[in-house]
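Kindly inspect what follows.
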Amino acid sequence: FKLPSDSFKYLGWCDLEERGVRGNQLRCPRVREGPSEEELFFRKEEHTLKRRKQVTDTEKWEKRLQENWENCAELNLSFQDLGDLYQVENFQRILRRLIRVEKLWLVDNSLTDLSAIRLPRCRELNVNKNHFTSFKQLPKIPQIQHLSLAENNITTLSGISDLRHTPLESLILRRNPCEFQERYRQLVFSNLPNLKMLDGIPKLPEDCSPPDVRFFYRMCTIL
């Protein structure tokens, strides 16, 4: 049986009539778009989407103002299910507009590279359960204090020094391959002297001793 909201399931909140909610008031929006009219026709669901009209430049500008992502300070864009390229593009379009966001969650979005994104005021970023393989693929986050990268695929600590000049205090790298690197904690703290907590554990005295670089040169493999 169809639900009362069935006719609205592919509509964005900007397309709803008599709505007074702006973009910066949303906390967990779905930013991906629905299927095209052609796809709905083949699904035999064309009744779920109103016939689209030609949108003027004025209407596009009004919609952009209504989104108002520039004034958003806290936002959860997790679990977006970005299955198509146009959905990914729309997702990144919104990320580029988050110039004042301070807390941002992007959990489980199959993200691989956000290096072209800049989040100048972001203090807390959660990108757990994505597909990052390097610190170089993270967005520009000069004011970051708390960063969570659990359950990605970061294999080495190469590039972590890019965070050295940020006020980063807490870092979570649990369930990444780099966690099993020799002297993992010492290497992280030596690259990030301002860091106070790693993987939920405060900085310990044994974490402060600099890693013996010569140790790695003396290693050899015996067959």
In short: The chain has one domain: 25-205. Confidence is low (pLDDT under 50) at residues 214-218. The longest helix spans residues 85-96.
